[in-house]
Amino acid sequence: MENLDVMVLRALHGWRAAGRRALLATVVRTWGSSPRPVGSIMAMCEDGAVVGSVSGGCIEDDLIDRHTRAYAQGASQRGAAADGGHRIPSGPPSFVKYGVSADEAHRFGLPCGGTLELLLEYDPDPVSLAALIAALGAGRLMQRSVRLADGVVTVAPAAAPGDLVVDAVQLTNTFGPEYRMLLIGAGQLAEYLATMAVFSGFAVTVCDPRDEYRSAWGVAGVAVVKDMPDDLVQAFRPDRRTCVVALTHDPKLDDLALLEALDTEAFYVGGIGSRRNNEARRARMIEHFGQTEEGLKRLRGPIGIYIGSKTPPEIAVSVMAEILAVKNGVTLPRDMAVAQAKHDREIQPTAAQALVCGTGGSGAATLA
Description:
alpha/beta, Rossmann fold, 15 strands
């Protein structure tokens, strides 16, 4: 599944290249609770077709209603009004707020106290959209700036990811290429994890030199290659939008790939395995590959968050949740880490132990 921003831009470009009128809505400010973050985009065609989202749906419904009413009544001239005040103007971009009052927040389905502001761009230039889409398809990080006075757009490479910036002159939004996931191993767990990653907007590549595993792969939309994992990591050139996850339980495949990944900017590097297996992996890397505890700080394992998972799909949910948390800059509580949670559960007495160790009212306890 393609990155959501790219899907929105591609749909918008298709409409505009076909000569259809359309708008691009961008969330530029939020106050209180908001269903979508600043920088979220949505494209809308003149017939009401929508790709992307700026809210939970009610704001989209209002925009669709106003937009389609205006054009259905032939409001084709700049600034023309239709249907008693329903106005979707052409020309320079305009700002619109939703949820300013409690009544509006309720009517538009915004959370209590929530307010958001959108910038609406009318009939964006298909040429600049095509240039942006091509650059993103080539894996480049890009900035799209919109001059508020007249809607003129400039597209340029970005040096680093950044938040949306809007002032009295222009709006600048940074668009990045797809997040990528490189999975080492094509087993059942990899299939579940790849499926979740694809639906989360990742471009997924699975590497497994073992023919018997590759031949059974069943997830569409995923690149499957047979290279040796450490060679592929080098060729893959992981960046800050890449995660590398080793899933084979085979040190010959996992260890070298993880070592290569640790020398990159990958935002997440981790390997499957129990606490004991992960400790053994770290010991091997230190003893045989000259690694240090400092050099292994970025290596995650056991991977995932603790949800008591036992089956491959549950483990995949656990791992995908941790990857998304790291991607989104969320620091998880220490007791959600698999190793810490299991350790804490081991030292907590069971109900039976509590009875054995109970005092019976004397205040003294004996260990069984």
